[in-house]
Amino acid sequence: MGDKRKNVYSGSISYSRLWETMKRRGITKQDLKKENFNLSPTLVNRLVKNENVAVDTIMYLCDKLDCQPCDILEYKK
Fold first, then answer.
1. Considering the domain 12-73 in this protein, what is its CATH number?
2. Cβ count near 8 (within 10 Å)
3. 3-state secondary structure (DSSP) of residue 34
4. CA 20 to chain centre
5. Distance from the Cα of residue 54 to its chain's centroid
6. What end-to-end distance do the CA atoms of the chain give, in Å?
């Protein structure tokens, strides 16, 4: 009952596909902080540093960018 899955994995998440998708659409990192996206500077910083973000954030970006999660992130071993 008290067993918890340990985060045992060797890879990491990269958001380089997000920056590529945004570049193709003429969207900048600064645009993410403006009214159309309204992401906090802290959240944008987490994306820049390839840190964990909530699935809700990925869903939000997919909706706003009209794309799929594979257009935003990838798992790298």
1. 1.10.260.40
2. 5
3. coil
4. 12
5. 8
6. 31
Half-sphere exposure of 69 (CA within 13 A, CB side): 10
Distance in angstroms (rounded) separating the CA atoms of residues 64 and 37 = 7
Which tokens is 21 given? Answer: 């998708």
What letter would DSSP give residue 70? G
* Tokens of residue 14, six digits: 């990269």
Q: Where are the domains of the chain?
A: 12-73
- pLDDT for residue 3: 60
pLDDT in tens, 10-45: 899 999 999 999 999 999 999 999 998 999 999 999
Residue type, 8: V
Q: How far apart are CA 62 and CA 56, in angstroms?
A: 10
pLDDT tens per residue, range 51-76: 999 999 999 999 999 999 999 999 99
